[in-house]
Amino acid sequence: MRQATMVQPGRIQFRDDIEVPAPGDDEILLRVSHIGVCGSDIHVNHGKHPFTSYPVIQGHEFSAEIVAVGAKVDAEKFPIGTFATALPQVFCGECDPCRRGDFNICDALKVRGFQVPGVAQDYVTFPQDMVIPLPQTMSAEIGALIEPLAVAVHSVSRAGPLSGKNVLVTGAGTIGNLIAQVAQARGGNVLISDVSDYRLEKVRECGIAKVVNPKTSDIADVVEQVFGPSRFDVAFEVAGVESALDTTVQLVAKGGTIVAVAVYGDRPKIDMAVLGDREIVLKGTLMYKHEDYLGAIELIRQEKVRLSPLVSVRFPFDDYMQAYEYIDQNPDKTMKAMIVL
Ligand SMILES: [Zn+2]
Ligand SMILES: [Zn+2]
């Protein structure tokens, strides 16, 4: 089978003489179909991912066909020939977070495609506990978008119920876009900001009507126009820049919640006096759990989210590297690049 290994930043080595792995008793053998390329993968390609060393087999958001199951796998739940995706985390099961069910923040967390081999190969095995069957009606391409949608579902769950609440999302890349869609599906009144008109246009295509570009409008003014003087109850900070985080702290309503979704390269300064004085709640979020994958599938099934506008470009597996080159050359018109096996 084929396998793509990033041997150093910006260099992928292909092999086609790798043996297809055999599933263990508790494992499922998957034939990989689609792999999404995300921001973290791009950081690895640039040598800027702090927790990844080389060589590494990338790929963590994907869809695949079930081709074989181990002796102890529930064959009714995972019929051969149907499609599935899987959670990419590898966790210890014994630390405090794992024992209370929060394996997404396991003390020894490893993620496929970063610290352990990912799915950039024709076949891959996963423990059955991590495999999520896809509805028969779902396309393989949409199946590969469940992972980023699960990130959004988990982030939104961190904020508590959103029904009837005013919500600001700062940053309209793939994750910000999906958070806005999930927040709206959960009953939130959503405004989203981004400095790119292209990304704001994509958000509109996905059904979010209220957008603001802080380059051309004063965001504080727009927030008051849209939400009134009480502004917003919840903010999702997805831009990963100090000014966006500071905006959410300055403008969120008293007692409001800010979920910090972005990965910050630098340590942003925020006004802790304002945070204390207004009893603002600042929360983190990391990846997802099973319930978030199931929530993502349910949102797709109910047609409460639109995912197709997010796929900007597709490349065959053998052109994996060209996908990265395209992303680098077209940062302002690429949302999600998809690798098709
Ligand atoms: Zn990702
Ligand atoms: Zn653990």
TrEMBL record:
<keyword id="KW-0560">Oxidoreductase</keyword>
<dbReference type="InterPro" id="IPR036291">
    <property type="entry name" value="NAD(P)-bd_dom_sf"/>
</dbReference>
<dbReference type="GO" id="GO:0046872">
    <property type="term" value="F:metal ion binding"/>
</dbReference>
<protein>
    <submittedName>
        <fullName>Zn-dependent alcohol dehydrogenase</fullName>
    </submittedName>
</protein>
<dbReference type="Pfam" id="PF00107">
    <property type="entry name" value="ADH_zinc_N"/>
</dbReference>
<dbReference type="Pfam" id="PF08240">
    <property type="entry name" value="ADH_N"/>
</dbReference>
<dbReference type="InterPro" id="IPR011032">
    <property type="entry name" value="GroES-like_sf"/>
</dbReference>
<dbReference type="InterPro" id="IPR050129">
    <property type="entry name" value="Zn_alcohol_dh"/>
</dbReference>
<keyword id="KW-0862">Zinc</keyword>
<dbReference type="GO" id="GO:0016491">
    <property type="term" value="F:oxidoreductase activity"/>
</dbReference>
<dbReference type="InterPro" id="IPR020843">
    <property type="entry name" value="ER"/>
</dbReference>
<keyword id="KW-0479">Metal-binding</keyword>
<dbReference type="InterPro" id="IPR013149">
    <property type="entry name" value="ADH-like_C"/>
</dbReference>
<dbReference type="InterPro" id="IPR013154">
    <property type="entry name" value="ADH-like_N"/>
</dbReference>
<feature type="domain" description="Enoyl reductase (ER)">
    <location>
        <begin position="10"/>
        <end position="341"/>
    </location>
</feature>
